[in-house]
């Protein structure tokens, strides 16, 4: 398969942020009285925009989650990311090769807020590849699992969505990429990726070292 553009998710694809963010969220939910295991917290929230989950949090804690709480979460999350964040193994070489092969027609399309995405890309040294081509689900009418952020990225690159490859790592993200009409490749370093394939990913891979072979 040949593609005219490649659209990357950020968290769990470019940066190993999800365990860090989840640990902060788990701690803050515990402060509200909702105690989750690390696995439960990852399963319930990874790949989703926290702003879309406030009703569920309120239902489990009996306390309304307002903008102040969300801002406090972002502050604590950002501090932890700045201290602990690392890049996904082999991603620098993979992005470099894909960027060159596709004449810079790559983008980062994330469900996270723009500040977080840009902070993380700067932190791990990937910003130069994505400068000016970063798209946030907070800035589209709907976030993942809806396709809006991927459609926005494809439109900005002037590439039909069906000629785009999407790189994702969650069922929520795969669902968004498929709904956009793109061909989705799923990164699954820890498991067999059965749920990702069921969501519509055409290829499951376990190492970013393999990604250029699929894209180029």
Could you please describe the fold and organization of this structure?
The protein has 216 residues and is of the alpha/beta class. Helices cover 49% and strands 12% of the residues. The chain has helices at 18-31, 38-45, 54-61, 67-84, 91-101, 114-124, 127-130, 148-157, 171-180, 194-199, 211-215, and strands spanning 5-8, 106-110, 134-136, 164-168, 183-187, 203-205. The protein has a six-stranded parallel beta sheet with strand order 3-2-1-4-5-6, with helices on both faces. Helix 1 (18-31) crosses helix 2 (38-45) and helix 4 (67-84) runs parallel beside helix 6 (114-124). 40% of the residues are buried.
The ordered H/E elements are EHHHHHEHHEHEHEHEH
Mean pLDDT, as a whole number?
Answer: 95
Q: Ends: how far apart?
A: 9 Å
Strand order of the largest sheet: 3-2-1-4-5-6
Helix-and-strand structural type = alpha/beta
| Large-scale geometry | globular
Report the major sheet.
6 strands, parallel
Number of E strands: 6
Number of helices: 11
Strand content: 5-15%
Task: Please mark out the parts with pLDDT under 50 across 5 or more consecutive residues, or reply none.
Answer: none
- Radius of gyration (Å): 17 Å
Helix content: 40-55%
Question: Descriptors for this entry?
Answer:
single chain, 216 residues, alpha/beta
Sequence-ordered SSE layout with sheet pairings:
Blueprint: E1 5-8, H1 18-31, H2 38-45, H3 54-61, H4 67-84, H5 91-101, E2 106-110, H6 114-124, H7 127-130, E3 134-136, H8 148-157, E4 164-168, H9 171-180, E5 183-187, H10 194-199, E6 203-205, H11 211-215
Parallel strand pairs: 1-2, 1-4, 2-3, 4-5, 5-6
């Amino acid at each position: 398969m040949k593609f005219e553009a490649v659209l990357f998710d950020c968290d769990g694809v470019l940066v190993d942020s999800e365990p860090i963010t989840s640990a902060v969220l788990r701690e803050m939910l515990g402060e509200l009285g909702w105690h989750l295991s690390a696995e439960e917290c990852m399963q319930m929230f990874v790949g989703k925009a926290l702003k879309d989950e406030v009703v569920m949090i309120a239902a489990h804690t009996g306390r309304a989650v307002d903008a102040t709480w969300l801002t406090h979460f972002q502050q604590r999350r950002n501090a932890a990311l700045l201290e602990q964040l690392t890049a996904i193994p082999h991603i620098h070489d993979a992005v470099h090769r894909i960027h060159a092969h596709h004449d810079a027609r790559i983008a980062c399309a994330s469900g996270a807020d723009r500040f977080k995405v840009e902070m993380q890309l700067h932190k791990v040294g990937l910003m130069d590849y994505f400068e000016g081509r970063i798209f946030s689900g907070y800035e589209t009418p709907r976030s993942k699992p809806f396709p809006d952020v991927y459609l926005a990225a494809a439109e900005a690159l002037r590439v039909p969505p069906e000629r785009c490859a999407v790189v994702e790592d969650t069922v929520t993200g795969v669902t968004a990429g498929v709904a956009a009409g793109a061909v989705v490749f799923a990164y699954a370093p820890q498991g067999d990726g059965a749920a990702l394939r069921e969501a519509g990913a055409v290829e499951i891979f376990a190492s970013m070292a393999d990604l250029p072979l699929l894209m180029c």
